[in-house]
Amino acid sequence: MSLILDEQFLSGFVTQSELDAYTGRLAAARERLHTPDGQPKGWRTLPCDTGEELLSAVETAARTIREEADILLVIGIGGSYLGAKAALDFLPGANGPEVLFLGNDMSPSHLSEVLSRCEGREIAVNVISKSGSTTEPAIAFRLVLELMQRRYGSEAARRIWCTTDPASGILRQMCEEEGWGRFEIPRDVGGRFSVLTPVGLLPIAAAGHDIRALMEGARTAQRLYDEPDHDLLLNPAYRYAAIQDILSRKGKSVELFGAYEPFASGLSLWLIQLYGESCGKDGKGLFPASAQFSTDLHSLGQYIQEGQRILCETVLDFADTGCGLTVPVLGSDHDGLGYLEGRSLGEINRIALMATAEAHWNGGVPVTLVTAPRRDAQTLGELFYFFELSCAVSGYLLGINPFDQPGVEQYKRNMFRLLGKPGYTGTEAK
Amino acid sequence: MSLILDEQFLSGFVTQSELDAYTGRLAAARERLHTPDGQPKGWRTLPCDTGEELLSAVETAARTIREEADILLVIGIGGSYLGAKAALDFLPGANGPEVLFLGNDMSPSHLSEVLSRCEGREIAVNVISKSGSTTEPAIAFRLVLELMQRRYGSEAARRIWCTTDPASGILRQMCEEEGWGRFEIPRDVGGRFSVLTPVGLLPIAAAGHDIRALMEGARTAQRLYDEPDHDLLLNPAYRYAAIQDILSRKGKSVELFGAYEPFASGLSLWLIQLYGESCGKDGKGLFPASAQFSTDLHSLGQYIQEGQRILCETVLDFADTGCGLTVPVLGSDHDGLGYLEGRSLGEINRIALMATAEAHWNGGVPVTLVTAPRRDAQTLGELFYFFELSCAVSGYLLGINPFDQPGVEQYKRNMFRLLGKPGYTGTEAK
């Protein structure tokens, strides 16, 4: 087993008998997850289903982008960029074009800044949207299209790749008319579960990372966490869902995802979307927040230790980050760090993690440690799948549908009405 | 009055009579705030107290840094970097060296990456710590000192500035021995209230921003929000504190600070520390979290709309961000954006803000809009002071001391014990 749940700092918050009581409910959740019911559950078998043909096509497009571009503009919002961003933050050794994400807001200052960074540099574009009609990416794509046509004229088409619906939608149609490169988002995979489709794979490969290792890690995870149908309490993905459910029923209402490595910060944002959209409905769900440690121990730390006792914490721990930095030996001990001289920063940082988990636990905050072996693509693939599966189980334990997101539509309806979009001028939003 | 509280989306959550009931409590909070009691309250009169001599000294050092360095390494944790980071994110038009923050964690991969970015570039250093003994910045400073001495030998001292205690501490002592440049952190100003001291001013000036305009905005705020002793319910800083207190007493437990401009993301992190450390004690306080909109409407949006009804929201709105980008006119209406052609992105983005506030309010989330006039140094100075003052009032309304942070020590004691630091080998942390 690659990921390890360390439950020492759950002691007193989650008991064995409480966990045992979940045996039947976890089995029922697994049964629901494995039963086709029209919900987008394709992500569950995606790692083992993804074939050579798709990976080769992604790698070929990625190679072209790497050869021809200094900047890759990735246009998408929510699940259309958070997975790739998580991977680009996480994985060391990028050697492709600089990847800039846009179309995830409508801030003129942000859009201007991205466009100005394109000056004098060769550009490629990957626009990612199931429909093509979401306002944020559509506006950004208009601005980028104008730039591309001005810069490259009829050659622009060779530099644009769309990742979109297999059969319908505005973007699909534009793509066919203009002859842009095209990848498909499987219909049975929702946005926040799509990182292992071309949605995530193309930007990750273009940046120079090994998508085969990523998929290999996800396949390992599928075999470890999804396939076994017994001992679900010993299956870390199911067990983690049971732990969160127990904590939620005991009155915890905020789940703080934390890590002691900034390279995991994009992964925390991905987790916030995954859990927020999957479980935040019907007045339920833990509110997902993130913290970057030890940085935020001098920011949120006081609150975690002594504020309202509504928090639980999930901390990502890495057994080896592959970085051998040590505390330098100085001539003097003016700074009082003599006792650390020559010791590995990695070791000190993990000691800080354990020390903090203990302090928070003492202060009334249960902490689940998820220990991953390394900082590499295989581990990341496993982490993606582990949390996707566990989150889906969490949704079923809460008694909600983890695969819809009805609440995302409401701001859009108000916005279209206020913007005067044809068909939205009534009072339907009130 | 420069900042405006827009309370339309508090309707039904906060009533006039509830606010009226705060008259006496706000007066009592103001009385406590203005009474010297040994707590670090110097930030309250800092804008009007700061003299020409200090500003000139900061500007002179900043000029030297700008002339001699391609990179400014700012070493500090918590309040020693969050204010400067907020300003550097917020203010347009930086023209100084690239500013890299380190010493806010012990991640070997992060430290390695920062050090590797220094290769082949001229470096200056600003190390910021009251004592010099906090582990995170002390380790980073050791690594940086080794690099500086290797790179510059005896000339290194000319490139190092310390911002530290006026009289004591390890860093003060090293600074005197080595002849580094020196600025002082006033003893009566705590870390999270220190952005308008040299802690924030030196990095902000070095990056090329106008610290006189920043201080001018803060002075305006001091005169508007701190000096008047009557009609406190009409004083936005006091009124905002009353609103948060009412929401907290009605069962809201998470305060989500949001903005529709990525340039405000550093300010949100600064707010999280300010409120988290000031109000998160004795089992009290709203848990401070942040969101970046409209980005996170496709991430946290579902939760905000339909998850547990424990959220309230404070949204920073900017009347004018000084960016004239418009939606380009395309030949066709393939993408369905024809109805937006030629319209200002700034206008569309503010409409999204209002549409979303309405949707969240409809969904049971009270939203306070704080409208600032512009994106400039003066406005930022006013925002810093407004929130410092309001947060202190919030602490008094909660019945806690807003100026201490006892909970920050607990992870340190555990860590020193696990690291075997002399004097910490006992069991005092359990």
From TrEMBL, chains A, B:
Its EC number is 5.3.1.9. Catalyzes the reversible isomerization of glucose-6-phosphate to fructose-6-phosphate. Pathway: Carbohydrate degradation; glycolysis; D-glyceraldehyde 3-phosphate and glycerone phosphate from D-glucose: step 2/4; Carbohydrate biosynthesis; gluconeogenesis. It comes from Hydrogenoanaerobacterium saccharovorans. This is Glucose-6-phosphate isomerase. Keywords: Cytoplasm, Gluconeogenesis, Glycolysis, Isomerase. It is found in: Cytoplasm. Belongs to the GPI family. InterPro entries: G6P_Isomerase (IPR001672), Phosphoglucose_isomerase_CS (IPR018189), SIS_dom_sf (IPR046348), SIS_PGI_1 (IPR035476), SIS_PGI_2 (IPR035482). Gene3D superfamilies: Glucose-6-phosphate isomerase like protein, domain 1. GO terms for molecular function: glucose-6-phosphate isomerase activity.
